[in-house]
Amino acid sequence: MTVPFEKYHGTGNDFLIIDADEHTVPDRGELARRECDRTDGVGADGILFLALEEAFQPPRVVMTLVQPDGETAPMCGNGARCAAEWAMQRTGTDSVMIDTQAGTLRADRTDDGVAVEMTELTFDPAGIPVDADEGVFEEEIEGLEVTMVNTGVPHAVSFVDDVDDVDLETVAPPVRHADVFPRGTNVTVASPDGDGGFSQRTYERGVEGETDSCGTGAVAIAVVARRLGYTDADPVEVRPPGGDLQVSFNDRGRAMLAGPVEHEFDGEVSVEPPIEP
């Protein structure tokens, strides 16, 4: 038995999209572990299972992201932008609402791609979560000086002179698995460009490796940099390896993540058929 997918990416952060209304996948975790593998599978940073609800205005799409480790992630900024583009293509609209496990987001088409209003962020230790009595700001954890924030998922953000000089595959895993993080964390490094923007690299929890882009990580860089006084730019230009993202702040104080989205190709993947009752 096979089910069709569409492959999308947002600044190199790539996903297989499966229409959850039309196709049943009994074991989503197994499919993600197999097909996200870049050697033996299609290759992706995750699988988005999307269910469209066209009766609402604007239309709504329910988004579930299953990562390469087979686990579900509550939020993904670039994944949400890809989900929005997918839903807008189907409904012929320029705005959609996205229901995620971290909250409901609004996404709008822009001249340069898709912008999504992110969930509320927090520096509160319980909301990250991190085992600490107060907010973690520029504190050393497993050899890396980090600030902790949750932008839908937890991020340990570290500002360095040059992100290209960081051996991320060596530095990040001890932080990602540190005992103070009961659910683990993403690890994001950033270096200033001198104009209020930042270069970015992120080691993603669930992918267990570096990705070409991370939307929640870009937002984490922007909000932490503003909190620590490293920039007052709005929007904040953030440049992961896969392309440029913009993080702005609307009149509700919410972060907006904007950037390009591309549809790469379509295909099919094998799944086990559902068990008949």
Automatic annotation (TrEMBL):
Keyword set, alphabetical order: Amino-acid biosynthesis, Cytoplasm, Isomerase, Lysine biosynthesis
Active-site residues per Swiss-Prot or TrEMBL entry: C76 (proton donor), C214 (proton acceptor)
Name of the protein described by the UniProt record: Diaminopimelate epimerase
Protein EC: 5.1.1.7
GO annotations of cellular component type: cytoplasm
Organism: Halosolutus amylolyticus
GO molecular function, one term: diaminopimelate epimerase activity
Pathway listed: Amino-acid biosynthesis; L-lysine biosynthesis via DAP pathway; DL-2,6-diaminopimelate from LL-2,6-diaminopimelate: step 1/1
NCBIfam families registered for this protein in UniProt: DapF
Record localization: Cytoplasm
Keyword set includes RNA-binding: no
Enzyme class, first EC level, given as a word: isomerase
SUPFAM superfamilies membership: Diaminopimelate epimerase-like (SSF54506)
Alphabetical list of HAMAP family matching this protein: DAP_epimerase
Chief location bin: cytoplasm
Function: Catalyzes the stereoinversion of LL-2,6-diaminopimelate (L,L-DAP) to meso-diaminopimelate (meso-DAP), a precursor of L-lysine.
